[in-house]
Amino acid sequence: MVDEGRRRVVVAHVRPDVEGGRFPAKGIVGRPVRVEADLLADGHDLVTGVLEWQGPDAEGWQAVPLVEDGDDRWHAEFVPDRIGRWRFRIVGWVDRFGTFRRDWAARREAGQLTEADRAAGVALLTDLARGSDDAAAAEALRHWARTLAAAEGLEAASAVVFADELAQAVRRGDPRRFATVLDPPREVVVDPEIALVGAWYEMFPRSASPDPGRPGTLADVVARLDYVAGMGFDVLYLPPIHPIGHTRRKGRNDAPEAGPEDPGSPWAVGSEAGGHDAVDPRLGTLEDFDRLVREAAARGIRVAMDLAFQCSPDHPYVRTHPEWFRHRPDGSIRHAENPPKQYEDIYPLDFETPAWPALWQELKRVVEFWIARGIRIFRVDNPHTKPFPFWEWLIGEIKRRHPDVIFLAEAFTRPKVMYRLAQLGFSQSYTYFTWRHDAREIADYVRELTSPPVVDFFRPNFWPNTPDILARDLREGGRPAFIGRLVLAATLSASYGIYGPAFELMERQPREPGSEEYQDSEKYTVRHWDIGRADSLAPLVARINAIRRENPALADNTSVVFHPLDNPAFIAYSKHDATRSNIILVVVNLDWHRTQAGWVDVQLEAWGWPDDRRYTVHDLLTGARYAWQGRHNYVELNPDRLPAHVFRVEP
Amino acid sequence: MVDEGRRRVVVAHVRPDVEGGRFPAKGIVGRPVRVEADLLADGHDLVTGVLEWQGPDAEGWQAVPLVEDGDDRWHAEFVPDRIGRWRFRIVGWVDRFGTFRRDWAARREAGQLTEADRAAGVALLTDLARGSDDAAAAEALRHWARTLAAAEGLEAASAVVFADELAQAVRRGDPRRFATVLDPPREVVVDPEIALVGAWYEMFPRSASPDPGRPGTLADVVARLDYVAGMGFDVLYLPPIHPIGHTRRKGRNDAPEAGPEDPGSPWAVGSEAGGHDAVDPRLGTLEDFDRLVREAAARGIRVAMDLAFQCSPDHPYVRTHPEWFRHRPDGSIRHAENPPKQYEDIYPLDFETPAWPALWQELKRVVEFWIARGIRIFRVDNPHTKPFPFWEWLIGEIKRRHPDVIFLAEAFTRPKVMYRLAQLGFSQSYTYFTWRHDAREIADYVRELTSPPVVDFFRPNFWPNTPDILARDLREGGRPAFIGRLVLAATLSASYGIYGPAFELMERQPREPGSEEYQDSEKYTVRHWDIGRADSLAPLVARINAIRRENPALADNTSVVFHPLDNPAFIAYSKHDATRSNIILVVVNLDWHRTQAGWVDVQLEAWGWPDDRRYTVHDLLTGARYAWQGRHNYVELNPDRLPAHVFRVEP
Fold it and tell me: Is position A381 annotated as part of the catalytic site?
């Protein structure tokens, strides 16, 4: 602290930043983390600095010099090569030698150089050497001090002052007097790539039976893996596979009473057969589940588990831990409700219970149970109905021991709550994409997600449909809408998903007109899907997932650029990889009912291209190629053929 | 910490905010401090909260309920009634009774109310009473629990549930279970109004002589006070009044050598006659200074002192504290320079000296010396050439004992450095206004200054000219430019200043074409000004300062609204007071050479007015009145008459 008053450099406005360092930022293994900061000092002296970082469990710091971008802004990058929690910090100090050299140059230019300047340089180098704790660097600095002193005349001295080797010696040996260190360091949770990039497929195992005469099982899901893999999906997400309660079970189409054949909602977890660590006997056994995970992995597919932390009235916890539930004055347990809506088949856990520490530990045990069986992805049901501190603790605890585990937040709630959940640890999040219909809504939302502060903590996963949401466009737009929304989701967001086979079979019958609920929703009913139907979108889905794999531009969100058009029915955007050698340009006609035509104003500067550039746009959906030139180019899309171009832009 | 896991409410994104609470925000005594925050909780429960605040040296907290604005944003205000450092914090918790009442209403609406709901309410009120540490409130809650239990039938129970008195009892008695408290509290430095609102007049005492045969003195400044007061200024700022060095003194027009009659730059502080705590004998004595401060105060004028922490080679510190200066290897002291520019008449203080604690203490002593002589305003010369930690310490120390003292940062440097200085304590700051010429530049800059985050810490002071800056518009625009820039400065910023008599006498001869330096600058030369000249702008300055005093709309910056015009030569903007009962609309023709006409699009919604409103605009400069209606109104300004309207908008 003795030098506090002489610490002249300020390090401020660091990025990535999540709430001023309160939460870690997010990174992907093998991808650069770009760090930025303001470095400020008083007066005219030059400042300089380094970015320092360390990996999980590392002790020392690696370092790289910061580069100035102007307006006192600096940046540098590091590439985390391991999954886990990384740390970085900025060190900034006054660049005494750089300042001396700059002033020397100015004096030389003005004919003001004197021997006093040379003497000042010799003194400075000697002082740097004295302060350095790198003996070799100190010796080098002393050598340069002698060389500067001995140079014959001021022109020869200038050659010494500007020698690259001298600058290198200073870089190595500078004792960084009165340096400012960003403290505490900032953290970056580095995840596997699947946390950012993945195509998800959701399906109900009980609807996977090839035989309309019986419900599906986990074994049927295994049999359907080739179908899912054939469409090119990375993640297979299953709604809860646990035993389902029978007390106050919901019937078909959410009927308040179930008939004898109604299977109940899988989100009403738990029965005499077990709770969150059990498999519904009608679906199979734990061993069947293990086999599914294995067989999926063999096809490059990860199984995502649903974490629905709530109980049916028949869940074992209700007997063993009644203190984990909220009771009425008459002693009965309160079911879930959002008055006047009643969810009699579900008891929420009471996170305000005095026994909360035991409850937290038990839920952590559940997660670890499935991790031990090979699960690395959890889709968390309604995380916004459990306290924020619980998720921060749970995800932190789990990732401390299993840093490759990721969590998807299924929170469709208020914007700030969604963002908070992402800040406190969720690896990726459902989004409002499902309800963003027109070009401006979509572009505004994507810009928000790909700009600070959101981009530093929130990874989107775009879903055109879910079992809860038969979106308006799909209800009203028919096949073109399914294709268009699929293209949008799959190319706007590095992670996207569909709920199938309802999606590829274009299921679009609402329970009632205007409702987002499906008629005969799988949430309450076993369905049988004819996945071999001739009009299935499965081949198109496969093509789009292949395009995603073949084009690294689509494996990131931040490069997105929107290209204006003179026709608001269209949306156009591009993405490119870091080297701009792979550029994808997507144009979608959002009018699902009519052919539209217009002129796109291609933002060539985004790719570093001149305005008169000639190039080819190669439609990866149809194979067609078009010769384009410059900014203004014609597009026309007939939704009955295809409502979208997915162009690879080829120079 | 035992309840940490049950603390469900998050308090985030608090405003005012300066670097996440690292620095205090700024307030003005008697003016409301509006505090905003996000309050988030999981689930569907309602949240509620209070703003708590305490004044300087207070122990307890005062409180007011937060009000919800939507999107999880809440706000409340407090009015600091004393100068000094205030603190505030937010307390947020789950509103159990509010949630119960909301759910009761929903159930009642749906015909779902049962006796179980009444029982739950009785239990809740009893539980709130049990937790309350306000005995009277607890008794009231128990009374309401009994009343609810006793009500005959559910309709009577409803009347109890919705009774205002019950809500009040809850507000008083709610134990705020698991409340989240913003910790540490945020701080607000509450300043006297002069920190935000003031008209400044800068003049060189040595040019104040009425007798061209001798230089001016402090006594001459006293004699000129009526002139300054007559123009309506609040602050009289004097460049340094200390003894001036003679070694390497600069001559007329910055000549490297002074002639025998050249008085030297007042910023080359110190000679055998004394240093920063002395008065230049040619100007008078400390007693003369005291008299000036007294006489100014008698006219409602505060004297602002220049703090120029640098020394001439003849300053006493050079002998008594050579360790406070930077030395060359040959032992000589380094003068100030910004190569190739040389300031041989000035030795900068070396804030990197190992003796920095003694240096800091001495500079603090200097400030306290002048505070003891009645000075409450310091204009700090080049604060950006001294370390940030020094200013934070100095201003903090001074304001701890003298909270009514304010500091104006004369930093014309890079934007982030200017903002940092304001963050660490400067009460107000010089700005880039001097170089903002066209309408868009001016509007963009004012918007930046009046929006978060800048508005929470930076108070602008707009100067059309300074002794260092003969701005382009003034050089080239003649009398209309002087009038227009005066109107802009005085109405865009609650604090503004002019350097006179150069300003009101429209001095505009540069040292060389295009230079911002004045020919025969007072920095190096004694000038004699004919303040009685017939063409002086003094009467107009007086009128404008009177308008400022008479219209509270101009005593604040944040209400500013820019009104578009169809002619880019114009700028139009308005300000209003909190009740919108005082509205000032300014229109300036920025083309100083030609009459311009156009249509202003009055943003009536800013004043809560309908688009067809009829109103009068009353030009406070000319007395003319115009009947306007609605948004689109005609303006025409001939710069040779007056380039500006300063309208009072009268309904």
Answer: yes
CATH fold for the domain made of A561-650: Immunoglobulin-like (2.60.40)
CATH of region B9-190:
2.60.40.10
- The distance from CA B214 to its chain's CA centroid, rounded to whole angstroms, is 39
Residue of chain A whose alpha carbon sits nearest to that of B424: A10
Whether omega before B453 lies within 30 degrees of 0, making that bond cis, reads yes
> B338 in contact with A at a CB cutoff of 8 Å?
yes
State the smallest CA–CA distance between residue A340 and chain B in angstroms: 5
How is residue A600 written in tokens?
């796109």
pLDDT value at position B2? 57
Q: In this structure, what is the dihedral angle of CA atoms B437, B440, B442, B445, given to the nearest 10 degrees? A: -130
CA distances from A355 to A277, A305, A349, B10 (A): 21, 26, 11, 22
List CB contacts (< 8 A) between B5 and chain A: 351, 356-357, 360, 387, 389-390, 393
Tokens standing for residue A68: 């100035």
For domain A194-308+376-550, the CATH superfamily is Glycosidases (3.20.20.80)
Is-contact B55 B84, C-beta < 8 A? yes
Task: Summarize pLDDT for A99-125 with one digit per residue, the tens.
Answer: 999 999 999 999 999 999 999 999 999
* Model pLDDT, residue B382: 96
Write the pLDDT tens digit of every residue in B160-174.
999 999 999 999 999
Q: Select which of B220, B295, B345, B410 is catalytic.
A: B410
* Distance in Å, alpha carbon of B640 to nearest chain A alpha carbon: 40
pLDDT at B419: 98
Among A17, A345, A362, A410, the one annotated catalytic: A410
By the 8 A CB rule, do B244 and B280 touch? yes
CA gap A108, A113 in Å, rounded: 5
Question: Six-digit token pair at B468?
Answer: 């260092």
Domain residue limits, chain A: 9-190, 194-308+376-550, 561-650
Handedness of CA B489, B490, B492, B498 (dihedral sign): positive
pTM higher than 0.90: yes
B6 shares contact with chain A (CB less than 8 Å)? yes
Residues B372-418: pLDDT tens digits?
Answer: 999 999 999 999 999 999 999 999 999 999 999 999 999 999 999 99
∠ CA A130-A134-A135 to the nearest 5 degrees?
Answer: 70
The one-letter amino acid at A501: P
Is the predicted pLDDT of residue A1 greater than 50, yes or no?
A: no
What is the 8-class DSSP label of residue A244?
B
> Has A127 been annotated as catalytic?
no
Query: Out of B38, B42, B103, whose CB is closest to A416?
Result: B38
Contacts with A411 from chain B: Cβ below 8 Å: none
Window 166-225 of A, Cβ < 8 Å to B? 178
Nearest CA in chain B to A102: B339
Residue B315 in 3-state DSSP?
A: coil
Whether A9-190 shares its CATH topology with A561-650 is answered yes
Q: Note whether A178 contacts B352, CB cutoff 8 Å.
A: yes
**Partner-chain contact A103 B339, CB within 8 Å:** yes
- Residue range B47-54: average pLDDT? 98
- pLDDT above 60 for A240: yes
pLDDT in tens, A299-308: 999 999 999 9
| Nearest Cα residue in chain A from B101 | A339
Which stretch of DSSP H or E encloses residue A102? helix A96-109
What tokens appear for B279 in the block?
């008065």
pLDDT at A2 > cutoff 70: no
Report the alpha-carbon distance of residue B485 to residue B462 in Å, rounded. 10
Cβ B463 vs Cβ B492: under 8 Å = no
Of B12, B340, B351, the CB nearest to A109: B340
Give the closest of A106, A178, A414 to B339, CB-based: A106
Option in B40, B123, B338 nearest A329 (CB): B123
